[in-house]
Amino acid sequence: MVKRNPERTRKRILDAATTEFSAHGLSGARVDAIADRAKANKRLIYHYFNSKEDLFLAVLERMYEEIRGFERELHLPEAEPEDAMRRLVVGTFDYYIGNPQLIALLNNENLHRAEHVKKSLRIKALHSPLVDQIRGILEAGEGKGVFRGGVDPVHLYISIAGIGYFYLSNIFTLSAIFDRDLHAKDALESRRQHVVDVIMGYLKPSNGVAAGA
Fold it and tell me: How many domains are there within the chain?
């Protein structure tokens, strides 16, 4: 008799759901297709996740958990402020490149006006340590005279994420409009450096003097 492994089954369902939701969105995704892809009984999906909407939220929660886990692996508090910020900028951009499903899922959730994210205390809780971490890096950088003062950590993170996100979420239309292969390795490398230059340039104190110094 084969022993059941609930965690393994749950992971298979989440993996299958991630693929289905990123390809077809919440409205277009089919639970039957998720069950087939996960090699799981359809009733088992409802047993673990109650509904398609709850399964979509579980996919989003895991997605955010994985992003925050990746950011922890950057060991930002252990680095000097400028190095820590570069790690965060480059890491965020490269994470988006390596996880295109994330962009599709975020696009779809925004179509639903964050209806599911708003319900999740887990997702909100995951972001508080990140904001505190960025605030600490900014304060350390200001103290060392390498960053300007008065930078809002939330606005900064939105800028770091947004500059890379827009490029990748609109890469097909941008490539067509500007007649460039923005998927090409050299284009991605150029964009990565551009994002670093933009963020680090913004953080640089005026005339090399930190605000309040």
Answer: 2
Taking residue 126's Cβ as centre, other Cβ atoms within 10 Å add up to 17
> What CATH number is associated with residue 64?
1.10.357.10
Residue 212 lies in a domain: no
pLDDT tens digits along 48-81: 999 999 999 999 999 999 999 999 999 999 999 9
Give residue 85's domain range.
Answer: 56-207
Closest CA to 20 of 101, 100, 98: 101
Contact 85, 137 (CB under 8 A): yes
Provide the b/e sequence for 148-158 (b: ≥16 CB within 10 Å).
Answer: beebebeebbe
Confidence of residue 211 (pLDDT cuts 50, 70, 90): very low
25 touches 108 (CB < 8 A): yes
